[in-house]
Amino acid sequence: xxxxxxxxxxxxxxxxxxEDKNVLVAQRSSTMSLPLKWEFPGGKVEQRETAEQCxxxxxxxxxxxxxxxxxxxxxxxxKYPSLSINLxxxxxxxxxxxxxxxxxxxxxxxDKEKLLELDLADADVPFVDKL
Length: 131
What we know:
This protein has 131 residues and is mainly beta. The protein contains 2 helices and 7 strands. The strands form 2 sheets. It has a 4-stranded mixed β-sheet with strand order 4-1-6-5, covered by helices on one side. The chain has a 3-stranded antiparallel β-sheet with strand order 3-2-7, with no helix packed on it.
């Protein structure tokens, strides 16, 4: 993922809770950037796409699920060594589909109190406090 100039890349992520109030996280593959890090699933906003459209598309493509966006949690800019991202987080619920991984190597439902025990992507960490 390359940044264009100095502008941060807009990236969306979903905070999805199940009926037990556990949160969905997915583990990046060893060939992805940030290899083997855990993250809230999502992806890069494409041209002519809203953040909400991006999130719905990415979750269908990467996890085979359809979600309903409940609310915007917030956003923040995170600077990685190679680029800056504007990470936009939404609370979502799964409305259909069974999770099938197409890019990640694993997923799990985690108690929100244990999220920081995972090797989370740095940009995702600030959202743990907002849960």
